[in-house]
Write the structure tokens for this entry.
Amino acid sequence: MRKIIISAVAKNGVIGLVSARKSDRKNNGELPWHISEEFRHFKQTTLGSPIIMGRKSFDALGKPLPKRENIVISRNNGLVYPFNDIKIFNSLNKAFEYCKEKNYDKIFVIGGGQIFAQAINEVDEMIISKLDFDAEGEVYFPTFDENEWKIIKSDKRDQFEIFWYKRK
Ligand SMILES: NC(=O)c1ccc[n+]([C@@H]2O[C@H](COP(=O)([O-])OP(=O)(O)OC[C@H]3O[C@@H](n4cnc5c(N)ncnc54)[C@H](OP(=O)(O)O)[C@@H]3O)[C@@H](O)[C@H]2O)c1
């Protein structure tokens, strides 16, 4: 089973915003940019595969993404959502084990910062859209040693470039 991180990262490493006010639902966890082509790439790449995300990222989405098994990681064992089609695990490893049992050939870790920081040591591949600009935000992609990874492929698009990384 191939474990793959997929992320969009601004030039300054920012991947997201944390709302200044927790009660401000509208601003809670929004991405600091909107690039339709990048969303399309994310959708096309992940369709049909499970997507694993931290509870905060799921809350930012607000609902499961269609045509993909949505898996949420939370330490809160009492967490419930009004959706039938999501799985909740209290560790990343339990989510990986579940996907292995279900014989998925590939799974995507889709964020956010906390989950990337833990998953980066576990995954075999990364698909990173490097944005051409800096973004304002407080959530960062973890720093990693480029020497431990090789770039298999890259693709320049308008406002971003996609890099496919494989662990050496
Ligand atoms: N640009 C991108 O590619 C991208 C992708 C996804 C998300 N984002 C952005 O990233 C931001 C969210 O990232 P974040 O770092 O704040 O949060 P996050 O990683 O999405 O979620 C953090 C939550 O995950 C759970 N968690 C973390 N480690 C765990 C562990 N070891 N065991 C069990 N549960 C664990 C905890 O949930 P509980 O508190 O419920 O215990 C924790 O509060 C948002 O702004 C979002 O828009 C960006």
Observations:
- Helices lie at 36-46, 55-61, 92-101, 113-119.
- DSSP finds four helices and ten strands in the chain.
- The longest helix spans residues 36-46.
